[in-house]
Specification:
alpha+beta, five-stranded mixed β-sheet, transferase activity, Gcn5-rel_NAT
């Protein structure tokens, strides 16, 4: 699935519009760290891979910006458990295992 990800700095969130609904991940940026705090996918879009694709696109952007990830959102942490190749972005000392 192709999502058009936009970083809306004024809202402190990444957004992807799908049809007439918006999925997003909220964040806090502090120096070279980004804290992903909440993922929201509208009920009408649940179960279609939107959330996972959104997390993937955000992780790609975090990597591109050379930021250190602090995954406070349970959905993001779960994605990282399933895709350990992205754990390289996570701040040292943070355990996201089950």
């Amino acid at each position: 699935m192709e999502l058009n990800l936009v970083d809306i700095a004024s809202k402190k969130r990444y957004e992807a519009v799908v049809g007439d609904v918006t999925a997003y991940i909220e964040y806090i940026k502090a120096k070279d760290k980004i804290y992903l705090t909440h993922t929201e996918v509208p009920k009408s879009m649940e179960g279609k891979g939107i959330g996972s694709t959104l997390v993937l696109k955000v992780l790609e952007d975090i990597e591109r910006q050379n930021l250190t990830l602090v995954p406070l959102c349970p959905f993001v942490a779960h994605y990282l458990q399933k895709h350990p190749e992205w754990k390289k972005l996570v701040m040292k000392g943070i355990n996201i295992e089950d």
